[in-house]
Amino acid sequence: MGRTVARRFAVPAVLAAMVSVGAAPPSSGSAASGSEQAPKVPVAVGYGGAVASVDADASAAGVEILRKGGNAVDAAVATAAALGVTEPYSSGIGGGGYFVYYDAKSRTVRTIDGRETAPLTADAGLFLENGQPIPFADAVTSGLGVGTPGTPATWQTALDSWGSKPLGSLLKPAERLARDGFTVDATFRSQTESNEARFRNFPDTAELFLPGGALPVVGSTFKNPDLARTYQELGRKGVGALYRGELARDIVDTVNEPPVAPGSGYNARPGDLSLKDLAAYRAKRQAPTKTSYRGLGVYSIAPSSSGGTTVGEALNILEDTDLSKASDVQYLHRYIEASRIAFADRGRWVGDPAFEDVPTKELLSQEFADSRACLIKDDAVLTSPLAPGDPRHPAACRAGGKAAPTTYEGENTTHLTVADKWGNVVAYTLTIEQTGGSGITVPGRGFILNNELTDFSFAPASPAVHDPNLPGPGKRPRSSISPTIVLDRHAKPVVALGSPGGATIVTTVLQTLTGFLDRGLPLVDAIAAPRASQRNQTTTELEPGLWDSPVRAQLEVLGHGFRQNPEIGAATGVQRLPDGKWLAAAETVRRGGGSAMVVRPAH
């Protein structure tokens, strides 16, 4: 990865070569399988639409749909379904996510909250035993952490609202990929290896992901015929089959009686999911968040995710600083401090708005941002954990009170970004939470269940501080997912992007946006630039590219403290170019590099 930061992080000669090769899927127009793996390049420019994801087969599935006349929503669903095959530890129909859509005809942004929900029997003591929180690791690999899946409902809600193709036809590339197989890469093997011990506690998971009792071999073909049949069933019956009927019963039985290997001795705490929970689930269409930044409109997802409010507040804090002229040290200092403040406020105020009074409008007001921005000093660092401000009653530079904690969120989510020839755009982040989710596969169905409920706070941090993220019946846990679409003054797309990474999603999106909009980086360079992530903690996480740079020492002189993180996020994005062209961009290195494709490459 890069060795320098901000404006000086660029490899134009390499990127120019990348643009001209591997920018489209195989000539067959179908998602590759087995030895016919699609090429994987991080940037592509061309016409007819674009897809960027972490996986070449998934991007190829999306482009296949675009070539067949599908729109961005259709292609997003097809890409997501394929990611459920090739990225099963990050996404799938056992999880949830957030969908942001730009409609070119009306020049408006709409969103879907497809977050998982707690059982209707859940209360604030969901993760307490004898009055004490259970160990986090125990909750992760259990039925107790599984929420009602939202991904299938998200797909159908998006298609009913804005799609042009039936679900069954959009699932065909993923169904084919699951049946015929895909080529195992180093990332897939590594993620399997990190989960091997807990996967062995569940016979169905071990049988699927540890074929023959061993780790999958890099270069081998991995098949999932059970998932192919499940996709076929959903295509034939509709997603209602997952929320009512035999598949729903299989999910409920698996959550409430996790099928643990006999003799393993593992205590997989049962959940309390019911058929009523699944039948009652709805993906929610809702208004996006909107922030004005540098004269542009920045749109994202509103609560239950904290992504839109936290990225938006941080941008508002940075609005009065000319980041284009700042030195690398000044830029990173301001970015880190804005992140620290925004996370302090999210921890106090953001939760599921169906249960909490979330002051979304006030959190995104410039008045509140200005009252918080004045805390930032050029020659000193704020102390974490920083206490929140009150967006309902902004008071300039006020500090004090109790800080709310940053809840741990699993990092292995996935993000895809799509544009079509009509100018519609989708930024969609989906997840099963932890790498490998709960580790529990629904027997005979080919997919892992989420452990999303562990995003709730297990107990209040302090009786003196209200925690909006405690569990409740049917409640959505707070998320950091931040799919974002930026529009110009004429309400036309400038860029769309997002990332996985748990709570680091917010900082990844914020840093990428400022790198692209303020620092003048090409989109692929803004994505590749080494990252810093501050989440109202005593130290800021740095990737090696910043850790090993002289900038770290200069920031430490100001008072910053750091710890290393080998990899933060894995972003993708699309950028609208003149004359109907699109640029798709993905990671150059992280997670083995991402996959950017266009329908017709511009050479």
Automatic annotation (TrEMBL):
* InterPro entries recorded: GGT_bact, GGT_lsub, GGT_peptidase, GGT_ssub_C, Ntn_hydrolases_N
Coiled-coil region(s) at which residues?
none
> Domain of life of the organism in this record?
Bacteria
Q: What kind of modification does the protein receive after translation? A: Cleaved by autocatalysis into a large and a small subunit.
User: Which positions are catalytic residues?
Assistant: T413
Keyword Transferase listed? The answer is yes
Q: Name one GO biological process term.
A: glutathione catabolic process
Q: Where does L-glutamate bind?
A: R115, D455, S479, S480, G502
GO MF annotations for this entry?
Answer: glutathione hydrolase activity; leukotriene C4 gamma-glutamyl transferase activity
Reactions catalysed according to its record: an N-terminal (5-L-glutamyl)-[peptide] + an alpha-amino acid = 5-L-glutamyl amino acid + an N-terminal L-alpha-aminoacyl-[peptide]; an S-substituted glutathione + H2O = an S-substituted L-cysteinylglycine + L-glutamate; glutathione + H2O = L-cysteinylglycine + L-glutamate
Q: Which keywords describe this protein according to UniProt? A: Acyltransferase, Glutathione biosynthesis, Hydrolase, Signal, Transferase, Zymogen
**Pathway as given in its UniProt record:** Sulfur metabolism; glutathione metabolism
Q: What is its EC number?
A: 2.3.2.2, 3.4.19.13
Residues in the signal sequence: 1-23
Q: Which family does it belong to?
A: Belongs to the gamma-glutamyltransferase family.
- What is known about its subunit structure? This enzyme consists of two polypeptide chains, which are synthesized in precursor form from a single polypeptide.
What is the recorded name of this protein?
Glutathione hydrolase proenzyme
Q: Which organism is it from?
A: Streptomyces apricus
Task: Read off the lineage from the record.
Answer: Bacteria, Bacillati, Actinomycetota, Actinomycetes, Kitasatosporales
